[in-house]
Amino acid sequence: MTTVKQAIREVDVVELIDRVGRWPAGTMGTVVHDLGRWKQIEISDEDGVMLDLVSALEDRLKLVTKHSA
């Protein structure tokens, strides 16, 4: 059986594999812009208030929740 890796797209929830800026590995966020290999991720607090906007390569992100089609 073959495992197929799902592509990460806008509105998917992801986890950072590595530190990005001040955010440690394990930080979760929502993809707000799909720029091909690069994804722009919104980091928000528990109330949904945006704390930061960061960019990371797709292969340095772990898909947590798939919301895109």
Structure description:
This protein is mainly β and 69 residues long. It has one domain. The chain has a five-stranded antiparallel beta sheet with strand order 4-3-2-1-5, with no helix packed on it. The chain is globular, with a radius of gyration of 12 Å.
Radius of gyration: 12 Å
How many strands, what sense, and barrel or not for the largest sheet?
5 strands, antiparallel
Strand order across the largest sheet = 4-3-2-1-5
Helix-and-strand structural type? mainly beta
Instruction: Tell me, rounded to a whole number, the average pLDDT.
Output: 94
Q: How many distinct helices? A: 0
Number of domains: 1
- Tell me how many strands there are: 5
The string of secondary-structure elements, in order, is EEEEE
Which consecutive residue ranges, at least 5 long each, have pLDDT under 50?
A: none
End-to-end Cα distance, whole Å, is: 23 Å
Q: Indicate the percent of residues in helices.
A: under 10%
Share of β-strand residues: over 45%
**Apparent shape:** globular
Multimerization state: single chain
Keyword list:
globular
Question: Quick summary of this structure?
Answer:
With 69 residues, the chain is mainly β. The protein is 0% helix and 46% strand. The model has no long low-confidence stretch (mean pLDDT 94).
